[in-house]
Amino acid sequence: MILPILAYNHPTLRKKADIVEKDYPDLQQLILDMKETLKKSEGVGLAAPQVNKSIRLFIVDATYYASKYPETKEFTKTFINPQIIEMSENTVYMPEGCLSIPGIYEDISRPETITIQYYDENWQEHTETYSTIIARIIQHEYDHLEGILFTDKVPMIRKVFLKKKLENIYSGDISIDYPMIFSKKKIKQK
Length: 190
What we know:
single chain; alpha+beta; Peptide Deformylase; five-stranded antiparallel β-sheet; two-stranded parallel ribbon; 3 helices; 24% helix
């Protein structure tokens, strides 16, 4: 089932997500629905808070980048209760966008390499190290679990230029090809 994605400044996007328990109701169905939603929206990552579930879960499908980054050729994963345990000091600026903030892309600085612990959808524990675009996507989705949006990392001068676009998003004055839920009320930016 395609799930509606929460638009910029919806209150759920600003909450720190809760730990997922093994007995979380219909978890496998939620994961399947999130994968279907991600495919429909043509994104590369989707966090549970973006579909109004404030739990520590996100999925990544980085195959879109396979022509430029060969390591993404078959990279699709589910991350449950992830913890980033190490980040490199080296950072890289790259443009980012977000399904909850459609039509806005900004250069964001992020650590080049990360190490993350997580459970997959079969509750197998993993500790893995990633770099390049995969590390960036994971960090972006991880931020959603912390109530952080990529626009929070944009320099203040750029936020001034983005203000009207952001207002249009949270008020629903945009055109998109996937279902969204809009808060329709102004919430103070971080």
